[in-house]
Design brief:
alpha+beta; Aminoglycoside_PTrfase; three-stranded antiparallel sheet; Kinase-like_dom_sf; Phosphorylase Kinase, domain 1; 2 domains; Transferase(Phosphotransferase), domain 1; Aminoglycoside phosphotransferase family protein; 241 residues
Length: 241
């Protein structure tokens, strides 16, 4: 999961709005910026975002360095979180295709960093082909005026294979996730084929689903570890799903 920064605001304080989610640390919106905890991985994330923007990828946060409190500072991407959108938009064929194409643009632009000597928050995964977002899902996609306009939350990025991101996107947007709302009538087989065609991959649906299963096994273990660290019962419920 991610901070799902644009989904909703859970609280307001004198120093900004606490953005909903925040499973990896408190995230604030202050004016047109987002502030989040920084770490040794932050320079790599900021370099990735800068490279993507220089390569013409639009709708992603602008890296703004650190603020006076040592927090990572990013531009706020205006719009609605896709996961919170009406089902008609959430499951539209157009958004599904655009999500696949956006992931492909991000992956292609990230290639120059695959061999760079950088510290990432999550471990690299072989075969290294691109820098994976590692949480490219509906709750990290932004829509505006019924169009997909961008993606947020690159904090978990690290080098890995293209199919690792693509499989998790399929799980969330085809969708196969048990918590996906209002999915009656969706032709999942057709939607998966559309997503793979939009990305332009030679991977078969069977291969993508096998990687999705592997991805979910890893996510369950990660989520249980986070639940143990934080004492949050909701994370255990998410791991069980």
């Amino acid at each position: 999961m991610s901070e799902a920064a644009n989904a909703s605001r859970s609280a307001t304080s004198g120093v900004g709005e606490v953005l909903a989610g925040g499973n990896m640390g408190e995230v604030l919106r202050i004016g047109d910026t987002v502030r989040r905890p920084a770490g040794e991985w932050t320079p790599a994330v900021q370099r990735l975002l800068a490279l993507l923007r220089e390569s013409g990828v639009v709708g992603i946060p602008e890296p703004l360095g650190l603020d006076e409190r040592g927090r990572e500072m990013l531009s706020f991407v205006e719009g609605e979180n896709l996961a919170a959108a009406d089902p008609e938009l959430l499951w539209s064929e157009r958004v599904l295709v655009d999500a696949g194409r956006l992931l492909k643009r991000i992956h292609d632009a990230s290639v120059p960093l695959t061999g760079a000597d950088l510290v990432w928050r999550t471990a690299a995964r072989e075969p290294v082909e691109v820098v994976c977002h590692n949480d490219f899902a509906t709750y990290n996609l932004i829509v505006r005026d019924d169009e997909l306009v961008g993606a947020i939350d690159f904090d978990l990025a690290s080098p890995g294979p293209r199919i690792w991101d693509l499989a998790y996107l399929a799980y969330r947007i085809v969708p196969y996730a048990a918590d996906a709302p209002d999915t009656d009538g969706l032709d999942r087989a057709a939607r998966l084929r559309s997503l793979l065609d939009a990305y332009g991959t030679d991977a078969s649906p069977r291969q993508v689903l096998a990687v999705a299963a592997e991805r979910l096994d890893e996510l369950e273990a990660f989520t249980r570890d986070r639940a143990a660290e934080t004492g949050r019962a909701d994370l255990l419920e998410h791991a069980a799903m």
